[in-house]
Amino acid sequence: MSADVAVSLSVLVGVVALSEVTRRLCSRALTDTGLSVYAVELVSTFQLCCCTHELKLLSEVGGIEPRLALTFTYLAAVVHGLTFNGAIGNPSGALEHAYHAKLSCGSALRRIACQFAAAAAARAAVPMIWGMGLSGLHVRHKLLGFRCISPIHAPLLTAATVELGCAFAVQSAITRTRSVEEKYRVHAVAAVIATVVYAGGGMTGAVFNPALAFSTQFPCSGNSFLEYCLVYWVGPLLGMMSSVLLFDKIVPVMSGKSSSLHLPLDSKKKT
Prior knowledge:
Layout: H1 3-29, H2 36-60, H3 66-83, H4 91-99, H5 105-130, H6 136-143, H7 156-176, H8 182-204, H9 210-216, H10 225-261, H11 265-270
Helix pairs in contact: 1-2, 2-3, 2-5, 2-9, 3-8, 4-5, 5-9, 7-8, 7-10, 9-10
């Protein structure tokens, strides 16, 4: 393992450890105020964005091999799943929770505000970490002025469709594994995340999270703000909605029809 990779892993561990301590302190300090869930949302989304910035740097500037990058993506997804402590970290997920009445509309909107605030904070904090020059990779990126180029390498509608498909796959995995024990569920969802990153990463970066994209992709040159909105906001939102529609409406209807086809003739006559 190169020194640059070792330093980046140390940064990831440090971010997660600091976030975990902050989450616990906030949960204890704000227990009776009703604000602890929003504090946890802020900290967890900040953790997600900071770690993704570092992994993106490793992959795009550090030039690590794709298999190692996917391994890090999988492990990071597992860690986030185990440490988020009830946070959602994704505006599309917050809207899905509101649709299923797991959150009130007001609570969902406040969570989304926290997510975007944390995304903006991470976007400001990460260059400060890189500016410390902890590794040669950080120094090289600092010399480039922390610039990044748009990861969209496909026509806009194709790119939006890719993000739609990624969000659909991840939301479907989350939906279908809700009955699975958490320690196993996080691995299943992380495996799906690594798979969609492998499949769509070359065309869009496979972000499928509007807040995360706002932090990691929107600052990059090469596309306009509205183009990024189409790909990284509209695409994932439609992907989440498509998954919800499939499992809430289409699958139950199809299951009802298929079961009715197997009813005994006598029972059909009685009805």
